[in-house]
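Task: complex structure prediction.
Instruction: return structure tokens for all chains below.
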Amino acid sequence: MAEKILVVADVKGGKLRKSSFEVTAQASRIAAGLSSEVTALVIGKGMEGAAGELAGYGAAEVLVAGGDVFDSYSSGAYTRAVLEACKQVSPKVIFLPASALGRDIASAVAAGLGAGMASDCTACEVKDGKIELVRPIYAGKAYITFTLDADVQVITLRPNVFAPGEPDVSRSVDVTSLEVGPDEKDQRAKVVEIIKGASEKPDLTEADIIVSGGRGMKGPEHWPVIEALADALDAVLGASRAVVDSGWRPHSEQVGQTGKTVSPGLYVAVGISGAIQHLAGMRTSRCIVAINKDPEAPIFKIADYGIVGDLFDVVPVLTEAVKGLEE
Ligand SMILES: Cc1cc2nc3c(=O)[nH]c(=O)nc-3n(C[C@H](O)[C@H](O)[C@H](O)COP(=O)(O)OP(=O)(O)OC[C@H]3O[C@@H](n4cnc5c(N)ncnc54)[C@H](O)[C@@H]3O)c2cc1C
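Output:
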């Protein structure tokens, strides 16, 4: 048996996030190719029950770090939990989702282990006994295929890219608690408040369908036009930076280089020109639909379907057509 693989799960509101299932399932595929096994680490209080769900996605063992120190999020404590798990499991590969959690702690984990690191990978498979990875470079303009030349590897996987598949509910797994005590260094930064978004919908990074509005929307008063389309599609709303900078929409909706990186099954770009910084955050979407009155808009170069026209004419018609499909 080769050395183990450790997966760090992501938790929100006492539940495992979808990206945790994606990473566990992908790590299990890699483990099969390396004759290895997956140990999953879940960090958070009261997560013992939910942690067992990871067995269905291929975890052979689950560790839960659920001490008081995890009452609220702290980069230091979460990093220490992963390093503590590594002491127990001695993994050669550590997978995390490239979510806010993974982005925050993966490099600290890699530094703590003296490991090689690859972030935001969009493909990952075993070739000739090595893990071959693909990730976007130059803000998504190109992709690089590579392997890490390091004994221990820390890899983050982009959410919504790796299909978790159906869980095997017949599998069960031992859940072991991992003790992680307090450390005064954790106090160097602490969470003072968490402001919840108004929407009950999933986070943009985990959404299957996104409808994004750009400056072509002309003002926040016109948002009901795309909200109706988003409701009909059961989609989450996104926005370009121009819109967010104008104060029309909150920053939590911004997609792009300085916003969120998304990879939904369907991305509808409404009145968005397709600047490189916007494309950097959404070009791995599986199907891109662009609505723009300018036939030369760069967004059409990467769109699977393009509609040239005034969005205020097109979107209501599209919304009615989608509603018609449901009836
Ligand atoms: C360092 C840096 C980081 C950045 N990060 C981001 C980022 O994270 N995300 C991001 O989005 N941008 C980012 N930007 C900004 C980016 O360069 C663009 O300025 C921005 O994406 C433009 O937003 P937009 O497409 O909404 O607006 P515009 O470029 O103004 O495009 C509006 C589009 O709407 C169309 N339109 C107008 N009226 C209508 C209508 N009635 N019907 C249909 N179409 C219409 C126009 O033809 C046009 O194509 C960044 C820039 C820098 C320098």
